[in-house]
Amino acid sequence: DIQMTQSPSTLSASVGDRVTITCRASQSVNKWLAWYQQKPGKAPKLLIYDASNLESGVPSRFSGSGSGTEFTLTISSLQPDDFATYYCQQYNTYSPLTFGGGTKVEIK
Amino acid sequence: EVQLLESGGGLVQPGGSLRLSCAVSGFTFNTYAMSWVRQAPGKGPEWVSGIIGSGGSTYYADSVKGRFTISRDNSKNTLYLQMNSLRAEDTALYYCAKDFPKFENWGQGTLVTVSS
Fold it and tell me: B62, B68 in Cβ contact below 8 A?
């Protein structure tokens, strides 16, 4: 299985901060990586796919980059609505599809 | 608007069975692959199974292979997950998701609790 490791596991930040979350794969997943946002009691929401493509309707302050084994999700200016948990997911290998452990973005 | 509505969850004893359903609307169902993803309390999401638009190919996580069966009825715009030989570790909120192998839209989930 491809292991996905996110860092940090928790991040404290203020409104307006630039925030970066890292996701590392145990082997190359090429560009086949997605990022999701999940708020308490809600289903995850797709933000980024194919490592850097912004899903329709997602604010442009979200961006993704990387390829191979190292990826980042950046929020250029953190907004109150962005406090949530973020997950990466690889889909290079179907057996199985795997998620990272999550990064919780908290209010500082 | 894409809508995914799961049902069929509940409390079941270890070794028991459940059939989950996901009724969809707002998109052309038979042109999209679909997935089931679960999330145990306090944990991250875990992919369970996927199926292509025609239903001709299916995919499973090793943890459920041989016990769970994904299927779809394109005439009813409905996705299913038949779960047999349930174990305590299958306890989770089960989400239906549009597309595979990434998940574009998610339902609200249906809770499956496996306990005696």
Answer: no
